[in-house]
Amino acid sequence: MSDSSLKDDHAKAFVEYLMTLRERDRGALAALRHSLAFEPGAYPKAFPYVERFAGAATHERDARRLALYAVAGLFARHPETAAQTFAAAFGQLARKRKAGSEKEYSTSIENRFVALLGADAENIFDYLRQAISLLAADDIGLNYVQLLADLSQWMNPNAYTDRLRQRWARDFYRAAQAEVETQAKPDTANAS
Length: 192
Fold this sequence. Notes:
The protein is mainly α. It is built from 9 helices and no strands. Helix 1 runs parallel beside helix 4 and helix 4 packs antiparallel against helix 8. 33% of the residues are buried.
């Protein structure tokens, strides 16, 4: 088994654990939600829920550990899961909030997303916290397993994140423009 598949299995187990907390332990979710007011990994009441997944060998500023804390808090804020990536979910939000029929999607949401893409390891969490609140307001879910994998890379100050940013941009714009493209295609079923 490769190292990346072990990490994928670990991420899935962590998100499944968070989903069981949603079902069984509202106090845990409240503690994790409150952890959003702190830097990832800095709120002691979140330790019992996250440290068991962080691993003994990782340093307290390890990107994967920070990503676990970030995802735990974000999930607690908006525990709506879906198959789509965070960027696709945010693109769906932009499409949903379009200001008028002449616009393809909300430019204010697009501007927030572009600012998020410019974030570095030190401030990506701040942008995501705001973005998840917007997704929660419109009940749009996302894939937290993928978000954990992405944040593990993004929160590493030594990682090369250009490809990740490009993938997020593609996901966002595809989702933001999906409805417009669907409407623009002629209905071939009724053409005959």
